[in-house]
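hi! just following up on the protien thing from before. the input was this:
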Amino acid sequence: MDDLRAYALDLFGRHLDTMADEVQNRNPFGAETAERVGIMTRRFREALDVVESDTARRGRLHIIDICAMREDALRAAGIDDVYKDAKERENRAAIELYDRVVSDLDAMSPPKRAHAVIQGIFAGNIFDLGATETVERFRETSVDFLEVRRQLRPRPWLVDDLDGWLRRREGPPHRSAVLFVDNAGTDVILGMIPFARQLLRDGTDVLLTANTTPSLNDVTHDELAALVDELAGRDVILADALADGRLELVPSGNGLPLIDLTLTGFELAEAVTRRRVDLVVLEGMGRAVESNFQATFTCDALKIAMLKDAGIAKLLDGVTYDLVLRFDEAGAAEGE
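and the predicted 3d structure came back as:
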């Protein structure tokens, strides 16, 4: 436990330097930029020092709490969207590839398409500016989605419930699914939106939920709404689903790269209840693995991510870039 604690504190400390460099390079506040970066850095390092020295909390350190401390430091400095430019760059690049990706999927047989959609989620999820293995790789360089997809680890994956998921898909479609999306760029545009599109084609209503406020390179609700509107202008499946009310976007009430599902916003809770959701999809390392991997649900649940941090991968007896697809049918996880 002490080793994990030390690893987490060191990881966040090193990533702080990366974020500070990003803000300095963007220089969004002109002459005030250096001062704001200094405030952010000082506040967060002080918080990390308190956690490190607080022996009473040993064994009770939660990564989501450190994420909240980091956001508090950013807000105290008046910095609210560190990776705004990177997100916009990756959104543009991914949109250029969207038509090709969905056209290729539409040309496949249903079984092959179901597998390929999952591969697309894995490939898109590599765009993560909060993970040590990918932040330097993609701060300035766009993701080559097609190449990443070609180089994915072969099956069996580290956690591989694909066969169970495909068997479930052979039965009646789910009534309604809530999809907790992760990052901007390839992740949401070439991974999760094609997945949502496939669910819609199969007869499942879809509730897309994203962070209410910015955190790392996670897509926000407002950004997602603009992206879906743009894509609907070229994709009749999305356009019809929006018009018919079968596709709905709701903010999650969250502002962290992980999520505590007991603290989601009222609007999301109301929509999930109203739509009688019977499938929960948690995507990305933070939401699916770090904060909810052992969470159980009263409905079917799909947890999917690429592991981009060596420490998190080690917890699952894996290595960096291993793939996780966990599917639990309603009540199944409780009986394991």
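The longest strand covers residues 300-306.
Residues 124 and 186 are 5 Å apart (CA to CA).
cheers
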